Backbone:
């Protein structure tokens, strides 16, 4: 058996270390991207954009953000009517 076909321990450690660094950089970039997305959504809904930082809470943070957006009363929609009046339809008068 030829030893040149296999990685030695130093090469394996270097490969594993570089893989771990690349993985964590990718995870960090993805986390920052999702926080930026949620920040924009919260701001457009009329909430404080800082609520997007709830995504940093492991396991339950994204769920809390989704629940706030799904079931919360959006401040940006305060004072708007629920549906526009359709043409050809007149509400009954009393």
Residues:
């Amino acid at each position: 058996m030829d030893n040149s076909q296999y990685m030695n321990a130093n090469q394996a450690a270097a490969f594993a270390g570089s893989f771990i660094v690349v993985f964590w950089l990718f995870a960090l970039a993805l986390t920052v991207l999702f926080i930026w997305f949620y920040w924009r959504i919260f701001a457009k809904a009329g909430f404080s954009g800082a609520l997007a930082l709830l995504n940093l809470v492991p396991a339950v943070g994204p769920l809390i953000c989704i629940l706030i957006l799904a079931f919360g009363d959006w401040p940006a929609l305060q004072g708007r009517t629920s549906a526009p009046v359709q043409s050809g339809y007149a509400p009954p008068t009393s």
